[in-house]
Amino acid sequence: MSAVQTQKVQTQMKSLIVVLAMMVMIGLFATACEPSSDPTPSPVVSSPPGNQRVEVGLGESVELPDMAIGVFFDRVVEDSRCPANVQCIWAGQVVIELTVTEADTRSAVRVSLEPGSGIESPWTTIATSRPDSEDISIRLIDLVLSPASANGLEDAVPTAVLEAIEEGG
Fold first, then answer.
1. DSSP reduced 3-state for 28
2. Strands of the sheet with 158-166, listed across from one edge
3. Residue 143 class from Cβ within 10 Å (0-12 exposed, 13-18 middle, 19+ buried)?
4. How many C-beta atoms lie closer than 10 Å to residue 126's C-beta?
5. DSSP labels for 83-142?
6. 140, 147, 146, 148: which is closest to 117 by C-alpha?
7. Secondary structure tally for the chain: helices H, strands E
8. What is the pLDDT of residue 38?
9. What is the domain partition of the chain in residue ranges?
10. CA-to-CA distance for 165 and 123, rounded, in angstroms?
11. pLDDT value at position 77?
12. Which phi-psi region, left, alpha or beta, contains residue 168 (left: φ > 0; alpha: ψ -120 to 50)?
């Protein structure tokens, strides 16, 4: 075999190795974000003692009388979650904006969730103005979209599932 033929074979072998390595990487990334076998959102379960779990739709408010606060769901800042029945490299995240009212105080807060990360969503603490009460922490448990109409996901209405707790309570 001549030197030119040997070099050509080596180049072809290198190309084949690169292509195979890329195929393996694509396969690994594609399986990293496979949807669960049940694409429907899990039902809201009861909260641990002292916590309150509530659902609030976009543009709606909910009262948490045990904590004397109201929560208004202002907007979805980001929803980059992987759609159902689609394989993604990254599961995405959800960020929403809420307005929390307590007495005469209004606080704008953002809460986030990274589904599939294996890490619980972070708590966002809101200082209360009542001297006899503890601060309140809120976290996003899920953002559920109503069943999409025939017009697609742009008509789906988001509902935030939130959990709140009085710190030290």
1. helix
2. 51-57, 158-166, 136-145, 124-126
3. buried
4. 19
5. PTT---SS---EEEEEEEEETTEEEEEEEEE-TTSSSPPPPEEE--S-TTS--EEEEEEE
6. 140
7. 1, 8
8. 41
9. 51-166
10. 9
11. 94
12. left
What is the residue-averaged pLDDT of the chain? Answer: 75
Which residue has tokens 């669960």? 36
| DSSP element (H, E) containing 159 | strand 158-166
Per-residue confidence (pLDDT) for residue 43, from 0 to 100 = 35
Distance (Å, whole) CA 43 – CA 49:
18
Residue 55's pLDDT is 93
Name the strand (E) or helix (H) holding 79: strand 69-79
Q: Place 98 in a pLDDT band, splitting at 50, 70 and 90.
A: very high
Please give the radius of gyration of the chain, using alpha carbons only, rounded to the nearest integer.
Answer: 24
Q: What is the pLDDT of residues 109-162, one digit of tens each?
A: 888 888 766 566 677 777 665 555 678 888 898 898 876 555 555 667 899 999
Report angle CA 40, 41, 43 to the nearest 5 degrees.
Answer: 120
With beta carbons less than 8 A apart as the criterion, state whether 166 and 135 touch.
yes
Q: Which residues of 49-87 are buried (b: 16+ CB within 10 A; e: fewer)?
A: eeebbbebebeeebebeebebbbbbbeeeeeebbeeeee
134's CB contacts (< 8 A; 6+ apart) are 128, 166, 167, 168, 169
